[in-house]
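I hope you will forgive my troubling you with a question about protein structure. The full record is reproduced below for your convenience:

——
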Amino acid sequence: MDIWYYLMFPFTWLLKFFYSFFNSYGIAIILFSLAIKVILFPLSLKGKKSMIQMNMLSGKLQKLQKQYAKDQARYQEEMQKLYEKEGVNPSGGCLWSMIPLFILFPIYAVVRRPLKYWLGLTETAITAITTAVTGAGATLSRGYPEIDIVSKLFNNPGLLNTAQAAAPEADLYGINLNFLGINLADTPNWKFWEGGITWNAIGLLLIVALCAGTALLSSVIMMKTNQMNNQNQAAAGQSKMMMLMSPLMMLWFGFVMPGAMGLYIISNSVFSTIQELICAKILKKDYEKAAEAARQRELEEKEEEKRLRREKAEAKAREAEEAKKNKTKQKALDEAEAAKIPPEVREASRSGMRQYARGRAYDPKRFGEVTPYDEGAIEAMFRAQAEAEQGKKKKKKDKNED
């Protein structure tokens, strides 16, 4: 046997244990799911407590996030110190809630391959038995031939003898998969009328419907208890998403798996709902404490928001007052500076109706009196410059001739 046989052994043993008392695979499946819930109940309760503790710490975590927003390494360090101080495992709530999902895979393997995990047969023996059974005229399910074989071996002693002869070293026996008139080895077919309407076909469809319905009920109850825990908006959104996804997943599982797996899904959902109600009652005081802490945190956040708005308004008022004072002060300085300007300069700086259009410091006499315009003097100046230029050219020409 490979390692998978030994990994599945605890699940197979528990399922066979219940079957030995009632000789009914359906009852064994229901009691198996109940036993798993009872065994895991302390861990589930611990996970619920961890979720409550995490919710109560959310206020302190938000403060740390704001305080060390620019230093993520320091934030992670302080957050870890807070977890250690409060004795909280941040992954505790999620970890324990995932265990039932991990149980689903081994129970599926045990249901799918009873010849290997239930009867402990080798692959060689399984192949020989399958060949013998099909050779005897039995039609097997394509996806789940082994569970179909053990069901037919229970209902047909002659077929059991044929299979035993094909694998004499095996200790073969059939398994009673009839539950309330439904063959749990069969896979549901939505075209239940094909081959004639029978209770078995209708019952398998009812199992599929109950898979989705009980999963939805369990999700609704879980969301209600999470609301008691006053989850944040992100967590509440995830709960709503799970409430929608879980029934759809279970509906799909119910259609593609044998009725035995559908019965396990129904049992697990029902017991999960009961577990949620029991946990809610046990942790009622913790939920109330968490709710009070959440209300107090909400009040503190509102007060903090009011304080920030008030400080912002006060800072804005101070800035406005300061700007007003600066404007008044500047105006006084401008008036003092303007008073120093002589009236004649002030008047000279005016351009039309615009005072100081030429600038406050405009003074037409800054560089002395304006020289009066003398056209004769200007002409004499230009004439002298022209004569000087001609003299230079003549002197240069005489020099070149020499």
